[in-house]
Write a structure and sequence with these properties.
By secondary structure, this protein is α+β, with helices and mostly antiparallel strands. It contains three helices and eleven strands, in the order βββββββββββααα. A seven-stranded mixed barrel has the order 1-2-3-6-7-8-10. The radius of gyration is 16 Å and the shape is globular. This is Nucleoside triphosphate/diphosphate phosphatase.
Amino acid sequence: MTLGKGDLMPAPEPGQSVQIQSYKHNGKLHRIWDSTTILKGTRNVVIGANDRTIVTESDGRTWMTREPAICYFHSKHWFNIIGMLRNDGVYYYCNISSPFVYDEEGLKYIDYDLDVKVYPDMTFTLLDEDEYEQHKREMNYPKVLDRILHNNVDTLVRWVRQRKGPFSPEFIDQWYERYLTYR
C-alpha cells in the first residue's frame, strides 16, 4: 500500500468485518484471520473482536480460534495485543510487530516473532526468542529495527505492570460487551 504525500490512511468502520493479515519481514504472508468485527477504528487505533474465526497459515493449513478475542492495534506502537476470554480469565497474546496499516484488503502488520504471553494474574513470559534470532540473521534485520523491537518489548512489559491500555481491568470486558451488540 502506498500513500501519496498528504494522503491519510483510511480507518475501518465500527461493525465492519475485516481480514487481519500478518506478514514476515521479507514480505511473505504469514497468517490470515478471516473475519474480525471492528469495534473502534481510527487512523491510530483499531480495536476488533472475533470468535471462532478461521485462521489460514502460510502453508495453507487452516484452524479455528476457540474463544472470543479482543484485538488491539496501534499505528505508533510496534506490538499488537489479543485478549482471549477463557473460563478462568483473560489471557493475552502480544505480538511484537510493525505498527498496523489498513487498506481495502484488510488490516496488515509485520510479525517479528517475539511474543509476550500474559496470564490472568498478570504474570508474563517472553516467547520465541530463538525464532527471532534466527529470522534476524536470515532476513538481515537492521540494527535500528532490532533496537526498536526490543524497546517495544520493554514498553509492552511496562504496560502489563501498570495495567495500562488493554491490560486495565475493565478494557476487555467493556469491548466484549460492545462486540455482543454486533452479533
